[in-house]
Amino acid sequence: MRPSGHGHLFVISGPSGAGKSTVIRSLLSREPELVLSVSDTTRPARPGERRGIEYNFVSREDFFGKRDRGEYLESAEVYGHLYGTPRIPVEHHLANGRDVLLEIDIQGAAMVKRAMPEAVLVFIEPPSLDELSARLRGRGTEDPDSLSRRMRASYDELKAKGTYDHIVVNDDLGRATGDLVRILEPRNPSE
Predict the structure, then answer these.
(1) Tens digits of pLDDT across the chain (191 residues)
(2) Separation between Cα atoms, residue 161 and residue 121, nearest integer Å
(3) How far apart are alpha carbons 89 and 38 in whole angstroms?
(4) 38 exposed, middle or buried (CB, 10 Å; 0-12, 13-18, 19+)?
(5) 40 in helix, strand or coil?
(6) In angstroms, how far is the first alpha carbon of the chain from the final one?
(7) N or C: which terminus of the chain carries fewer CB neighbours within 10 A?
């Protein structure tokens, strides 16, 4: 949110169904100068997803080549698909004073924090596990086995929230967005 100098890196994570993407869209509508990093993935696009907007859809071969060349800030396998954050665009925006948001999973957030200790980690959580289950079922994209797997993973991910700098409960979109806006304000007013 600073026009010059070095930008800040904000990492947003949380379990599937917590509403991360919805909260981020709301945040970007209020703070359009933020840059949302677009991750690479080997999973197929879901209906309505566009290349270069939600994700860069790449082959496994391309992904492994980029990873082996050190082109990812972080990478992980999630539910059988590979995800990675391209390093160069993130570093470019930060060097040009832009604040960057990464929407990545728990293991990726830990990798980013090790590589860039100044990154601010924000965990988005649902108001309850029941609400999380209802949101996942409401998507209509999960078969019963997949839903069960995601719920088990979500429970494990919720246990990791204590390693984050901030926790935002997504029980009300306006409140959750406002909480994120406050977190993204400059940490040191003299900056």
Answers:
(1) 444 468 999 999 988 778 888 999 999 999 999 999 999 999 999 888 888 888 999 999 999 999 999 999 999 888 789 999 999 999 999 999 999 999 998 889 999 999 999 999 999 988 766 666 665 666 566 676 776 776 676 667 777 788 999 999 998 999 999 999 999 986 444 44
(2) 10
(3) 9
(4) middle
(5) strand
(6) 10
(7) C
